[in-house]
Structures are given as C-alpha cells and as structure tokens.
Write a structure and sequence with these properties.
By secondary structure, this protein is of the alpha+beta class. It folds into two domains: 357 residues, Up-down Bundle (Outer membrane efflux proteins (OEP)), CATH 1.20.1600; 72 residues, Single Sheet (Outer membrane efflux proteins (OEP)), CATH 2.20.200.10. Helix content is 61%, strand content 11%. The protein is built from ten helices and four strands. The chain has a four-stranded antiparallel β-sheet with strand order 1-2-3-4, covered by helices on one side. The protein is elongated, with a radius of gyration of 38 Å.
C-alpha cells in the first residue's frame, strides 16, 4: 500500500518535467520603420479606444450593440472559443492520473466430471481504486501537447476579437453607405423636380415658337436621367438595408436608419500611429498568427519526445473476498503495481518524418505571421495615405460644386434671354449634378477611411 502511494506521488511530481520544444523567439517584423506618410504618435493606443467612444451617433451605437448580440459569424467565433477551451481541458487532463473505482462479483460452478474435487459454486467479490497506464512525462511530450492546445485556444480568442473588429467596421460602413445613398436619392429627386419644371417651361416655349424641338429633346434627356437615378438609388437603398439586416442578424429597426444623410460619427480628430512593429503586434489577427506560431513551436517538442522511451504506470489497491459481507474485512486487501516502458526501436522513419513535419509547419507559420504583418502594414499605410489628402480633395470638391452651380445659373439666365442655346444649359446642369454626386461620394470616402484606419490599427474590440 505504501509503495503505491509513493508511486502516485512520484508520478505527480514527474508531471512537471520540462518540454523539449525549442525556445520561442518572435520573428522580426518584415516592414519598414515608418508608414511612408506623416503619422503623429498619440498619447493613447488605438486598441484602448472602445467603439462606444469612437462612434458618436447614438443610432450607430445601437446598431453595433444589436450586431454584437445577434450576428451569426460572431456567434460562431465565440463558439469556436468554447470548443478550443474544451479541447485544452481535455489535453491538460493528460498531465494528471486518471483514478477510477470499480467493483465486481463473479460466480462459478465447478463440475465433478472435470476431475475437480472442489465441486460446487464459488463467489468472488472485489472492490478497487487505481490508475491505468498513466504516462510519466519525463521528456515533456504531454506538456508540449498541452502548450500547443493552450496556444490554439488563445488563437481562437484573438480570432474572435478580429471578427468583432471586422463586424464593427462593416456595420459602420454599411450604415454610412445607406446614409450616402439616401442623400443621393434626395439629390436625384430634387434634380428630377427641377428638371420637370425646366422641361415644362421649354415645352411651353416650343409651343410659342421660341424654343426648338432640339431644346425640348435635350430637356427630356436631363429629366429622364434624373428619373433613372431616382429608381436606381431607390434600389440601392433597399439593398443597403438588406446588407445591414444580414450583418445585424436581426431586422433593421426603422428608427435606427440614418435620416439626415452622413453625419460626423467619429469623435477622433486624429488617430495615433506609432512605430509599425509596435502598433501592428497588438492587432488581434497578428496576435492570432503569433499564437498559431507558438503552437507549432510547442508541437516540435512533442515530436522530439517521441524519439525517447515512454514510461507508464498502472496501479490499484482494493479488497477481495469470497463473501460479500466480509469484503472489507481483515486480510482481504490487495494491491498491484505495474510499471511499463516502451522504447521506439524501429518505426520505419515515422518519428523522424513527424519531427520534420512539425519543423516545416513552424516555418509555414512564420511565413504566415510575417505575411499577416505585411498585410496589416499596407492596410494602415493605405488608410494614412488617403487621410493625408482627403481633406484637400474635399475642399476642392466643395469649390467645384459652388463653381458648377454658379455656371448653371448663368447658363440658364443666358438661355432665357436668348443669348445661348439650351445645350449650354444642359452641359452646365450635368456638370453641377455630377459635382454634387461626387461630393457625397467623397464625404462617404472620408468617413469610411476614418473607420478603416480605426479598425486596421486594432480598434473596435473593446467597448
């Protein structure tokens, strides 16, 4: 009995053996030290700025809340975390002995025809507790597999954060797109109403012989163009609402639709952007890739340990008696202790191949980690490049809208006074309408880029 207890204590102590995995070293970030544009470092890290603080519009905040509660992709990501956590607990349980208890009753009838002098019925009752084939982790195989499962679990948590960042950005961009298309529709409706009046006036002038048939047809083209845009943007708005409904995972509430076009929805005048290697390593997708790399590194330890002997223990203590009433009486105790060692002698190269596979998998994960950083670097650099010039583009576009509007007013006055033909009015009206549409698109681009920059810098997974 004492020997068995000593063996169990020894087994527990040996469970803490070190892994044979190589020491982990984070690969050098394969990106430049600057973004290529002026980026002022801020006092706060973007990852610490929650989406509630970043988004000002209350409707948008409520939409994000609704999406976080109902989006199916995010729900799958959360379930993947639970699955990985369970798998880690399964793997971790291998570090400890599995203790089982059991009892049995056996009856046997002996026959005189077999030459057995002790004929009759015999009974054997047993009760025992013990462990079966518990592996002593001398060379860290189980510990390496446990570390691999732990890192994969952490990777799924980062994947869930990355999924939330993507979802928050998609919700905001879809809501902005809906707001922009509603503004486009309003502009098209106003243009259609204006061109309807212009067409009626031109048609009246044609009836009086003042305008030509060509003027009437030209007025008709602008009217039909605006009418076509009204129908087109009506369709786009419905599609935008359908896209939002899918992202929300629930019906889109009518009261949460944008009513006043594109409003300023970000509270940040400037987002901090420090050194790429420092900023990017905090992004959840980069952390996910690194966790997967660490898991591959741990798996090398398990592959190395396969070259060494496997030592396992089977032990039990209990009581056995021919009478159930005397099962736990004096003199009925028994114990067994069976150590076993398995030495790999010939595996036809299996262990060597498994080690090579583990080492190659680590190299693959290194390349994937570096590619993730490079992709993140480009996303941030692109967003910063647009941010550096979008204000200038917006100012130029506003000036263009004012100029085309003035040109249209002058052309219309000259036509009404008989100085120019209607073609000049038509060209001016088209230029004004196009400049107004482009202004809406550019405002959408500016706000969308602010959201993009927020997400690619790792913001959006905190409230």
């Amino acid at each position: 009995m004492n020997k068995t207890l000593i063996s169990l204590a020894l087994a527990t102590a040996l469970a803490g053996c070190a892994s044979m995995a190589p020491d982990y070293e984070r690969p050098q970030a394969p990106v430049a030290d600057t973004w290529g544009v002026d980026a002022k470092p801020g006092e706060r890290d973007v990852t610490d700025i929650g989406w509630r603080e970043f988004f000002v519009d209350e409707k948008l905040r409520k939409l994000v809340e609704l999406a976080l509660a109902n989006n199916r992709d995010l729900r799958v990501a959360a379930l993947n975390i639970e699955q990985a956590r369970a798998q880690y607990r399964i793997r971790r349980s291998d570090l400890y002995p599995t203790v089982t208890a059991g009892g049995s009753a056996a009856s046997q009838r002996n026959s005189r025809d077999t030459g057995n002098s002790n004929s009759g019925t015999t009974h054997i009752y047993t009760a025992s507790i013990g462990l079966s084939a518990y592996e002593l982790d001398f060379f860290g195989r189980i510990r390496s597999l446990n570390e691999q499962a732990l890192q994969l679990y952490f990777a799924t948590e980062e994947a869930r954060r990355a999924a939330q960042i993507t979802l928050v950005a998609e919700i905001a961009n879809a809501w902005l797109t809906l707001a922009a298309d509603r503004e486009h529709l309003r502009l098209a409706q106003e243009t259609y109403a204006s061109q309807q009046q212009s067409w009626e006036m031109t048609n009246s002038r044609f009836s009086l012989g003042i305008a030509s048939a060509l003027d009437v047809r030209q007025a008709q083209t602008t009217l039909d163009t605006a009418r076509l845009d009204v129908a087109r943007y009506t369709t786009l708005i419905r599609q935008d609402e359908n896209a939002l409904t899918l992202l929300l995972g629930a019906p889109l509430p009518e009261e949460l639709k944008p009513q006043n076009g594109m409003t300023e929805i970000t509270a940040l005048a400037d987002l901090p952007a420090g050194l790429p290697s420092q900023v990017l390593q905090k992004r959840p997708d980069v952390l996910q890739a690194e966790r997967q790399l660490m898991a591959a590194n741990a798996n090398i330890g398990a592959a190395r340990a396969a070259f060494f002997p496997t030592i396992s223990l089977t032990a039990s203590v209990g009581s056995a008696s021919s009478e159930l009433s005397n099962l736990f009486g004096a003199g009925t105790g028994f114990w067994t202790f069976i150590p076993q060692i398995t030495v790999p002698i010939f595996t036809a190269g299996r262990n060597k191949a498994n080690l090579e596979v583990a080492e190659l998998q680590k190299e693959i994960n290194i390349a994937q980690y570096e590619k993730t950083i490079q992709t993140a670097f480009r996303e941030v650099a692109d967003a910063l490049a647009l941010k550096a010039t979008v204000d200038e583009q917006l100012a130029a576009q506003k000036s263009l809208v004012a100029a085309t509007d003035a040109s249209y007013q002058l052309a219309q006055a000259r036509f009404q006074n008989g100085i120019d033909n209607y073609l000049t009015v038509l060209d001016s009206q088209r230029a004004m309408y196009a400049s107004q549409q482009n202004l809406i698109t550019l405002r959408l681009l500016m706000l969308s880029n602010q959201i993009t920059l927020y997400s690619v810098l790792g913001g959006g997974w905190k409230e």
